[in-house]
Amino acid sequence: MANPSLFSGFRSSVILKVALLIICAFSLPSCLDSHEEIWLDADGSGAARIQLVFPQGVARFQGGEERIRKMIEDFVSSTPALTSHVLTTSADSDRFHLDLTLTFENALDLLDAANESTGSGLPPAATEFLGVTQINFSGLNFDFERRIELSKAIPGSLFIPQRQLQGHSITTIIHLPKAARTHNADSTADGGRTLIWSTPLATALKGPVERRFNMPLPIPWATIGFVTLMLVLLLGALIYYMLRRNSAA
Q1: What residues have CB less than 8 Å from 110, skipping those under 6 apart?
Q2: pLDDT tens, 223-243?
Q3: Distance between CA 150 and CA 145 in Å, rounded?
Q4: Quick check: 51 and 32 in contact, CB under 8 A?
Q5: CB-CB neighbours of 99 under 10 Å
Q6: Which of the two ends of the chain, N or C, has the fewest CB atoms closer than 10 A to its terminal CB?
Q7: What torsion, rounded to 10 degrees, do the Cα atoms 105, 108, 114, 118 define?
Q8: Is the pTM value of this prediction over 0.70?
Q9: How far is CA 195 from CA 43, 183, 198, 241, in A?
């Protein structure tokens, strides 16, 4: 016969977890805002800036400001794709501010590092927030898709009152070297080279958030033309030399 105390303990554990989820829902995400901006150059290098504002309760849950800084510094130092970074953090009475700027030489290497961040030492919520990014090359086209399930990063999101989510959003801005052919951005700038997504937090918590675009590969035609011209001149000089040599013989 099963021990009733075991079931009692199990029920108490479940009730405690549900209570904690409800508490988190009412306190943690009430002022979550995210703004990330990426600059991508034609050679694949670039920079990114991530600005987050979230409740102090989240910071304390992750070990406080010092612990958060250490986790980020450890992640950056263990990611060879990143060439430099600047991290600033601050806190007021109820909110924690994080501002991280990164530079990289190869965006593809950086995407691989982001997708493999599960074992990087970052908390699960951070890896869920990074999401999963997929890229594909088709001919001279570049396809990009990023999928974020924010509800997995925020415990108890189903219990969050809608009034607490109003006025908060997650924003992504990507500056491309060439105008996108297709995209699902909310707006664009700079002739289609800047894509802007701004998703209300309430919408982001209801389902997956997707950022996607298709862009023609930035081929350096001037460089190709110069190299072609040099090859033609070299070939012409070689033919001229061979003709002169044959005539002399």
Answers
A1: 79, 81, 82, 104
A2: 444 445 556 666 656 665 566
A3: 16
A4: no
A5: 15
A6: N
A7: -120
A8: yes
A9: 19, 8, 10, 54
